[in-house]
Design goal:
- Helices cover 36% and strands 22% of the residues.
- The protein contains 6 helices and 7 strands, in the order βαβββαββαβααα.
- The termini are far apart.
- It has helices at 25-34, 71-81, 114-123, 144-147, 154-177, 179-186; strands at 6-10, 40-42, 46-53, 56-63, 88-94, 102-106, 129-134.
- A 7-stranded mixed β-sheet has the order 2-3-4-1-5-7-6, sandwiched between helices.
- With 188 residues, the chain is an alpha/beta fold.
- The protein has a single domain, classed as 3-Layer(aba) Sandwich (Rossmann fold).
- Strand 2 and strand 3 form a beta hairpin.
Amino acid sequence: MADDRWLVLGLGNTGDQYSTTRHNIGQMVIDYLASDAKYSNHKSKTQITDIRVAGHPVVLAKTLGYMNESGGPAKALADFYKVSSNNLIVIHDELDIDFNTIRIKQGGGDNGHNGLKSLTTNFASPDYFRLRMGIGRPQAPIDPADYVLKPFSQPEKKELADFIARGALAIERLIEKGLDYAQQEFNK
């Protein structure tokens, strides 16, 4: 049944030079959820794989373009699978949350995040779920636009595997138990 299916999109930029950057934390969580599953290229300009979470079919997706163009491929994929924004979860980096902190919400503004801006424009609604993975804001004079495209620091790398695993668990809780339950567990 189409109403039962979820679409989980990890935001990031395509290319090896971006794969370990803060901006790609969403795609890192998707890779963790995908585990050993094989990705296939979809005509929507995404890489996808299918998993099940608590009995629900879930399409995991990573766009094959740049962050600020995520909305078009995501909308095309959602239309293909007939998934409404009520069953869309977007995993993204968040500058205004400390590193290694997770926040889950539904709806809201884009807070200057071009990936979210593109999604909201293409879905004509901001009312999708967001798994906000805190990366912290850099100290001046470092430009946030440069900061998000840099790899995690050595101290951050020591905590990164656990952070990604908790992000994956948050996705599973959101699908299995709902928003209120997931927020109580992760929005601390």
